Amino acid sequence: MSEQSKSDKFKKIWILGAGKFGQLALERIIRHLPEVEITLVDNRVQETGAKGATVVCEEGISWLADNMQREETVDMIIPSLPVHMVAEWLKLKSSTNYGVSAVPLPKHLVARLPNPIKNGDSQLYLSHADFLCPDNCGEPELFCTYTGKERAEDMFHLLANIDELPYIPFVVRSYQLLPGVGGIYPKDMWNLLDRVNNCLDKPLLIVTACRCHGVLDGLQFGPKRV
User: What is the average per-residue pLDDT within 89-96?
Assistant: First the structure.
Protein backbone atom coordinates (compact mmCIF):
# COMPACT_ATOMS: atom_id res chain seq x y z
CA MET A 1 0.00 0.00 0.00
CA SER A 2 1.43 3.38 -1.00
CA GLU A 3 1.85 6.23 1.48
CA GLN A 4 -0.89 8.16 -0.35
CA SER A 5 -3.35 5.30 -0.03
CA LYS A 6 -2.42 4.91 3.64
CA SER A 7 -3.07 8.61 4.18
CA ASP A 8 -6.51 8.11 2.64
CA LYS A 9 -7.24 5.05 4.79
CA PHE A 10 -5.81 6.13 8.15
CA LYS A 11 -7.21 9.30 9.66
CA LYS A 12 -6.68 8.63 13.38
CA ILE A 13 -3.92 6.60 15.01
CA TRP A 14 -3.30 6.05 18.72
CA ILE A 15 0.17 5.23 20.05
CA LEU A 16 0.22 3.64 23.50
CA GLY A 17 3.59 4.24 25.12
CA ALA A 18 6.03 7.13 24.67
CA GLY A 19 9.29 5.25 25.15
CA LYS A 20 11.86 4.47 22.46
CA PHE A 21 9.52 2.61 20.11
CA GLY A 22 6.57 4.92 20.74
CA GLN A 23 8.71 7.92 19.82
CA LEU A 24 10.04 6.08 16.79
CA ALA A 25 6.51 5.33 15.63
CA LEU A 26 5.49 8.94 16.20
CA GLU A 27 8.41 10.32 14.18
CA ARG A 28 7.82 7.97 11.24
CA ILE A 29 4.08 8.54 11.09
CA ILE A 30 4.56 12.32 11.15
CA ARG A 31 7.20 12.07 8.41
CA HIS A 32 5.37 9.70 6.08
CA LEU A 33 1.68 10.26 6.92
CA PRO A 34 1.54 13.95 7.90
CA GLU A 35 -2.25 14.22 7.54
CA VAL A 36 -2.95 11.56 10.17
CA GLU A 37 -4.28 12.70 13.55
CA ILE A 38 -2.09 11.11 16.23
CA THR A 39 -2.81 10.63 19.93
CA LEU A 40 0.10 9.56 22.15
CA VAL A 41 -0.82 8.03 25.53
CA ASP A 42 1.62 7.47 28.39
CA ASN A 43 1.38 8.24 32.09
CA ARG A 44 4.90 9.70 32.04
CA VAL A 45 4.88 11.55 28.71
CA GLN A 46 5.73 15.24 28.59
CA GLU A 47 4.25 17.66 26.06
CA THR A 48 7.70 18.79 24.92
CA GLY A 49 8.63 15.26 23.86
CA ALA A 50 5.75 14.67 21.49
CA LYS A 51 5.42 17.44 18.93
CA GLY A 52 2.89 16.61 16.26
CA ALA A 53 0.59 14.59 18.50
CA THR A 54 -2.18 15.11 20.99
CA VAL A 55 -0.68 13.98 24.30
CA VAL A 56 -2.67 12.15 26.96
CA CYS A 57 -0.90 11.66 30.28
CA GLU A 58 -2.74 8.55 31.53
CA GLU A 59 -2.13 4.84 31.97
CA GLY A 60 -2.39 3.38 28.47
CA ILE A 61 -4.50 0.23 28.92
CA SER A 62 -7.08 1.91 31.16
CA TRP A 63 -7.34 4.82 28.75
CA LEU A 64 -7.77 2.44 25.83
CA ALA A 65 -10.53 0.51 27.62
CA ASP A 66 -12.37 3.76 28.36
CA ASN A 67 -11.99 5.38 24.94
CA MET A 68 -12.04 2.72 22.25
CA GLN A 69 -15.62 2.15 21.14
CA ARG A 70 -17.06 -0.36 18.70
CA GLU A 71 -17.81 2.51 16.39
CA GLU A 72 -14.84 3.74 14.35
CA THR A 73 -13.20 6.02 16.92
CA VAL A 74 -9.67 5.20 15.70
CA ASP A 75 -8.23 3.45 12.64
CA MET A 76 -5.18 1.76 14.17
CA ILE A 77 -3.51 1.36 17.56
CA ILE A 78 0.28 1.14 17.85
CA PRO A 79 1.23 -0.86 20.99
CA SER A 80 4.49 0.47 22.44
CA LEU A 81 4.02 -0.41 26.11
CA PRO A 82 6.09 -3.07 27.94
CA VAL A 83 2.98 -5.27 28.29
CA HIS A 84 0.83 -7.43 26.01
CA MET A 85 -1.66 -4.72 25.07
CA VAL A 86 -4.33 -6.99 23.60
CA ALA A 87 -4.34 -9.39 26.56
CA GLU A 88 -4.34 -6.60 29.15
CA TRP A 89 -7.18 -4.77 27.39
CA LEU A 90 -9.12 -8.03 27.12
CA LYS A 91 -8.70 -8.75 30.83
CA LEU A 92 -9.81 -5.25 31.78
CA LYS A 93 -12.86 -5.26 29.48
CA SER A 94 -13.91 -8.70 30.73
CA SER A 95 -13.39 -8.02 34.43
CA THR A 96 -16.82 -6.42 34.87
CA ASN A 97 -18.60 -9.66 34.01
CA TYR A 98 -16.06 -12.43 34.46
CA GLY A 99 -13.24 -13.60 36.62
CA VAL A 100 -9.94 -13.80 34.78
CA SER A 101 -7.08 -16.12 35.69
CA ALA A 102 -3.67 -16.88 34.20
CA VAL A 103 -3.21 -20.40 32.82
CA PRO A 104 0.22 -22.07 32.95
CA LEU A 105 1.58 -23.11 29.56
CA PRO A 106 2.63 -26.74 29.02
CA LYS A 107 6.40 -27.19 28.90
CA HIS A 108 6.22 -29.32 25.76
CA LEU A 109 4.29 -26.56 23.97
CA VAL A 110 6.85 -23.95 24.98
CA ALA A 111 9.68 -26.20 23.80
CA ARG A 112 8.35 -26.50 20.26
CA LEU A 113 7.73 -22.80 19.65
CA PRO A 114 10.41 -20.59 18.04
CA ASN A 115 12.91 -18.93 20.38
CA PRO A 116 10.58 -18.67 23.39
CA ILE A 117 11.30 -16.26 26.22
CA LYS A 118 9.16 -16.95 29.27
CA ASN A 119 7.68 -14.25 31.46
CA GLY A 120 6.35 -16.30 34.34
CA ASP A 121 4.43 -19.52 33.74
CA SER A 122 1.68 -18.10 31.51
CA GLN A 123 3.32 -15.66 29.06
CA LEU A 124 5.76 -16.16 26.20
CA TYR A 125 7.57 -13.84 23.84
CA LEU A 126 8.35 -15.57 20.55
CA SER A 127 10.46 -14.78 17.50
CA HIS A 128 11.72 -16.40 14.33
CA ALA A 129 14.87 -14.31 14.79
CA ASP A 130 17.72 -15.26 17.09
CA PHE A 131 19.34 -11.87 16.42
CA LEU A 132 18.44 -8.21 16.95
CA CYS A 133 16.19 -7.14 14.09
CA PRO A 134 16.72 -3.74 12.43
CA ASP A 135 14.14 -1.22 13.65
CA ASN A 136 13.24 -0.27 10.08
CA CYS A 137 12.39 -3.73 8.76
CA GLY A 138 9.82 -3.55 5.99
CA GLU A 139 8.49 -7.05 6.81
CA PRO A 140 8.61 -8.36 3.21
CA GLU A 141 6.48 -11.42 2.64
CA LEU A 142 9.04 -13.76 1.11
CA PHE A 143 12.45 -13.11 2.70
CA CYS A 144 14.12 -11.77 5.84
CA THR A 145 15.62 -8.30 5.40
CA TYR A 146 18.46 -9.13 7.81
CA THR A 147 19.59 -12.54 6.56
CA GLY A 148 18.24 -12.43 3.00
CA LYS A 149 16.95 -15.96 3.53
CA GLU A 150 13.46 -17.28 2.85
CA ARG A 151 11.02 -16.51 5.64
CA ALA A 152 9.72 -19.12 8.04
CA GLU A 153 5.96 -19.57 8.32
CA ASP A 154 4.24 -16.33 9.33
CA MET A 155 4.11 -16.23 13.10
CA PHE A 156 0.42 -15.31 13.14
CA HIS A 157 -0.37 -18.43 11.07
CA LEU A 158 1.90 -20.69 13.10
CA LEU A 159 0.34 -19.66 16.42
CA ALA A 160 -3.24 -19.73 15.10
CA ASN A 161 -2.70 -23.39 14.20
CA ILE A 162 -1.44 -24.55 17.59
CA ASP A 163 -2.92 -28.00 18.22
CA GLU A 164 -2.75 -28.35 21.98
CA LEU A 165 -6.04 -29.49 23.47
CA PRO A 166 -7.77 -28.26 25.53
CA TYR A 167 -6.12 -24.88 24.80
CA ILE A 168 -7.83 -22.72 22.17
CA PRO A 169 -5.64 -20.23 20.29
CA PHE A 170 -6.98 -16.77 19.43
CA VAL A 171 -4.65 -14.61 17.34
CA VAL A 172 -4.81 -10.87 16.68
CA ARG A 173 -2.51 -9.92 13.83
CA SER A 174 -0.22 -6.89 13.96
CA TYR A 175 -0.15 -5.23 10.53
CA GLN A 176 2.75 -3.16 9.35
CA LEU A 177 1.89 0.50 8.90
CA LEU A 178 5.43 1.67 8.06
CA PRO A 179 8.88 0.04 8.27
CA GLY A 180 9.40 -0.77 11.95
CA VAL A 181 5.88 0.37 12.89
CA GLY A 182 3.16 -2.23 13.39
CA GLY A 183 -0.38 -1.75 14.62
CA ILE A 184 -3.64 -3.42 15.56
CA TYR A 185 -7.05 -2.86 14.03
CA PRO A 186 -9.67 -2.14 16.72
CA LYS A 187 -12.25 -4.36 15.00
CA ASP A 188 -9.94 -7.34 15.55
CA MET A 189 -9.86 -6.63 19.28
CA TRP A 190 -13.63 -6.39 19.51
CA ASN A 191 -13.97 -9.63 17.54
CA LEU A 192 -11.62 -11.27 20.03
CA LEU A 193 -13.70 -10.07 22.97
CA ASP A 194 -16.86 -11.49 21.40
CA ARG A 195 -15.20 -14.85 20.75
CA VAL A 196 -13.87 -15.09 24.30
CA ASN A 197 -17.38 -14.55 25.64
CA ASN A 198 -18.34 -17.82 23.94
CA CYS A 199 -15.40 -19.76 25.42
CA LEU A 200 -15.85 -19.42 29.16
CA ASP A 201 -14.16 -21.91 31.49
CA LYS A 202 -11.77 -23.01 28.74
CA PRO A 203 -8.02 -22.37 28.67
CA LEU A 204 -7.21 -19.86 25.93
CA LEU A 205 -4.01 -18.79 24.21
CA ILE A 206 -4.33 -15.06 23.56
CA VAL A 207 -1.81 -14.03 20.91
CA THR A 208 -0.66 -10.89 19.15
CA ALA A 209 1.71 -11.57 16.26
CA CYS A 210 3.19 -10.18 13.07
CA ARG A 211 5.14 -12.20 10.49
CA CYS A 212 8.20 -12.72 12.70
CA HIS A 213 7.34 -12.05 16.33
CA GLY A 214 4.58 -12.75 18.80
CA VAL A 215 3.49 -12.61 22.41
CA LEU A 216 1.24 -15.27 23.93
CA ASP A 217 -0.74 -15.32 27.19
CA GLY A 218 -2.51 -18.28 28.72
CA LEU A 219 -5.83 -17.01 30.15
CA GLN A 220 -9.15 -18.38 31.32
CA PHE A 221 -12.41 -16.51 31.79
CA GLY A 222 -15.22 -17.71 34.03
CA PRO A 223 -17.76 -16.73 36.69
CA LYS A 224 -16.62 -14.00 39.08
CA ARG A 225 -15.71 -15.18 42.54
CA VAL A 226 -17.78 -13.64 45.29
Answer: 95
| pTM across the whole model | 0.93
Residues 103 and 192 in one domain: yes
Both 18 and 106 in a single domain? no
Distance CA 219, CA 9 (A): 34
Task: Read off the pLDDT of residues 182-224 as tens digits, 9 standing for 90 and up.
Answer: 999 999 999 999 999 889 999 999 999 999 999 999 999 998 8
Sign of the four-CA dihedral 13, 144, 169, 62: negative
178 by DSSP, 3-state: which? strand
Query: Both 106 and 208 in a single domain?
Result: yes
For residues 144 and 218, state if they share a domain. yes
Indicate which CATH number applies to the domain containing 57.
3.40.50.720
Range of the domain at 187: 84-226
pLDDT score for 48: 45
Note whether 137 and 21 are within 8 A (CB): no
Rounded distance between C-alpha atoms, residue 135 and residue 213, angstroms: 13
Report how far residue 38's alpha carbon sits from residue 29's, in angstroms, rounded to the nearest whole number.
8
Q: Give the sheet arrangement for strand 76-79, strand by strand.
A: 54-56, 37-41, 12-16, 76-79
**Distance between CA atoms of residues 112 and 161, nearest Å:** 13
Residue 41 has pLDDT above 50, yes or no: yes
